[in-house]
Amino acid sequence: MPEVDQGVDNMAFGSWIQQIVRSANKRLHLALRGWHDLRFREGSLIHGRYLVRRKLGEGSYGVTYVCTDTVADRACVLKRVTPVRGGRTRAELIYAREVSILQRLQHPAIPTLYETFRYRNHLCFTMELMPGASLDCLLFQQHVRFSEYQSLRVLRELLPIVSYLHAIGILHRDISIANVLLDGEFAALIDLGLARELVPAGTGHQDPLEIEPGDPSEKVLRRQIDVTSDFYALGHLLLFLLYSTYTAREHNAAADDIGWERELDLHPGTKKLLRRLLLAEQPFGQACEIIHEVDQLLKALHASN
C-alpha cells in the first residue's frame, strides 16, 4: 500500500475547508445584500433626495441604482459599496479609495462624482449617469456586430481615456465590455471600484482578497498594479468585439482550442496588436504607442475597402 504524505493531505484538506468557508461567507453576504436591497427598492427616497428608479448593476464590490436627484432635478447613479468579502473594514477602504480617485477625475468620458454620504450605515455616493449602452448589452442582448474596422474604432475611442488615467497616475484594472458604454461613436469608461494609483514597479500591494486560489491567469493579469493590466484588458475587449462577426465553419471537438489567430481573419497588423496587448509579444509601455499603431491600422483598413 503506497504511503500517504500526511502533510500534503492536511494541506489539501485545509484548502478544501477554506473554500467551503469562503463560499458560505459569500452566500451569506449576498443574502444580506439582497435584504438590504429592500431599502433601495424602486420608489424609495434615499438620503432625502435620491428617488430610486431601478437597479442598474451588481458586482463583487457593490450595487448601483439609477435615481432621480429630486433636489438638483437630474438623473444620476447611486452606488452602495458592499464588497462580497472582507466585511466592514474592507468596505470602508474600498469606499475611501474609489471616492478619492473619482474626486481627482475630470474627463467627459468618465462619470463625475456628485455627492458622498452614509445612509442607514450604508456607504454611498452619487455620480453622473453616462449616456449609451454597455458593450455587453450591445453584444449579447442587441446582437450588434462589429467589423474589424469598427472594433478598432471603439478601441481608438477608449485609448485617450486610458491615457488620461495613466497620465495622472491611475490604473482602471477593470476595463471590460460591462464597463464600456457606447453612444454612437462616443465611448465612456465607468466603474472605478478596482482602480488603483500607479506606483513604481515592485512597490504596489494588491488587496489579498482580490485574488482567490484557483483564479484564472487572466484575472491575475488584470489585477496587476501596472499599465499592462489595462492594456491586457483592452486586448480581451477587442477580441470580444472581433468575435461578434465570427461564425464557426466546422465546429468539432478537435477544433475547440485552435485559438483566435486561426479562427479570426484579421489584418496582420491587428494580429500583432493583439499579441502585444495580450502580452504574447513585447508589451506596450504607454497608451500613446497603441494609439499610433491603431491609427496606422485604421488607415490601412480604410484604404483596402
TrEMBL record:
Q: Where are the transmembrane segments?
A: none
Q: Which residues bind ATP?
A: K79
Which is one Pfam family of this protein? Pkinase
Keyword field = ATP-binding, Kinase, Nucleotide-binding, Serine/threonine-protein kinase, Transferase
Source superkingdom: Bacteria
Q: Work out whether the entry's keyword set contains Zinc-finger.
A: no
Name the Enzyme Commission number(s) assigned to this protein.
2.7.11.1
The record's GO molecular-function terms, alphabetically, read: ATP binding; protein serine/threonine kinase activity
Q: Where is the Protein kinase domain?
A: 50-305
User: Is Nucleotide-binding included in the keywords of this UniProt record?
Assistant: yes
Q: What is this protein called?
A: non-specific serine/threonine protein kinase
- Please give the catalytic activity noted in the UniProt record: L-seryl-[protein] + ATP = O-phospho-L-seryl-[protein] + ADP + H(+); L-threonyl-[protein] + ATP = O-phospho-L-threonyl-[protein] + ADP + H(+)
